[in-house]
Amino acid sequence: ATPESTTTYTMHVSSGKCHDSARVTIVVQPLPQADVGEDARICKDGNVRIGTPAVPGYRYRWTPAIGLSDATIAQPFASPSSGTTLYTLTVTSPAGCTATDSVTVTVGNIEAVVAGDTVVCAGTSVRLRATGGNVYQWSPGIGLSDSTVANPIATPNKTTKYKVTVFSGTCLDSAFVTVTVASSPTANAGADKILCVGESTEIGMPAARGNSYSWTPADGLTDPASAQTVATPGVTTSYVLRVVNEYGCEDYDTVTVQVNLPNERSFTLVPDSIRIIPGESLLVTLRIPIGSPLWN
């Protein structure tokens, strides 16, 4: 017998003129209700309550028990570590009747990832990079081209630690990146010089540790790759010094070495021929050209 509700069955037995009967009642107990609620989605390290309020006298069992605050109550908190987990609830009534229902809990896969710390020269820019979500928020926003995009351009005026918060739905994560602003080196080519043809002079200043140096043009220089070098130009030349520090920051300075050509002037001796008489005085007139204060 498989009655749908409580039913009393009567059995009749006959033998000739004799007969008898008996009754039996089958009580059909109602099935319990197993209701786990809607499927849920949580963020990393989050949790959600699953199930519905308990019915007095009923027993509850969830499988698997991993990630549940209590696998023997009607409404435990579920906090699986990753992926999607299918939880099945079995409800048992006092009469021993059972019912089952299932719910899935999915962990949002969101992780803020940024490029490594970097160094920039004062006044220059670098592009920051972040991944992991679909909405981004950078802070502080000072020095950024756009604080709401994944890859803004940063032009900080001092060393700055940026925080990016990455969102995906209700889930979020954050990460940090530091942009160090390096000081530029100082290029000092020295004071301008004046030489005569064939003379030499030293240009530049002592080297600073960690910097590299280069002079252009290299013509007339003993060492165009040093901070100080000897210059012997054949004509007036402007030398440009480029200094680069360990971070690639650079600076420039210029020194001009002026080369003066020989100043040759003609002069007249009057008279142009002289007869010398021993013991008598001699008068000679030398006419020096204007603009020639010294002569040899």
> Which stretches of 5+ consecutive residues score pLDDT under 50?
none
What fraction of residues sit in β-strands? 35-45%
The average pLDDT score comes to: 89
Discrete helix count: 0
Percent helix, as a range, is: under 10%
Secondary structure category: mainly beta
Got a strand count? 24
Rg calculated over all Cα atoms: 50 Å
Give the SSE order as H and E letters.
EEEEEEEEEEEEEEEEEEEEEEEE
Provide a quick synopsis of the model:
With 296 residues, the chain is mostly beta strands. Helices cover 0% and strands 44% of the residues.
Describe this structure in words.
This protein has 296 residues and is mainly β. The protein has strands at residues 7-15, 18-26, 40-42, 48-49, 59-63, 77-78, 84-92, 98-107, 113-114, 118-121, 126-127, 130-131, 135-139, 153-154, 160-168, 171-182, 193-196, 201-204, 212-216, 228-231, 237-244, 250-260, 268-270, 285-287. It is rod-shaped and about 200 Å long. The N and C termini lie far apart (145 Å).
Descriptive keywords:
24 strands; 296 residues; single chain; 4-stranded mixed sheet; mainly beta
Summarize the topology:
Elements: E1 7-15, E2 18-26, E3 40-42, E4 48-49, E5 59-63, E6 77-78, E7 84-92, E8 98-107, E9 113-114, E10 118-121, E11 126-127, E12 130-131, E13 135-139, E14 153-154, E15 160-168, E16 171-182, E17 193-196, E18 201-204, E19 212-216, E20 228-231, E21 237-244, E22 250-260, E23 268-270, E24 285-287
Parallel strand pairs: 3-8, 10-16, 17-22
Antiparallel strand pairs: 1-2, 4-6, 5-7, 7-8, 9-12, 11-14, 13-15, 15-16, 18-20, 19-21, 21-22, 23-24
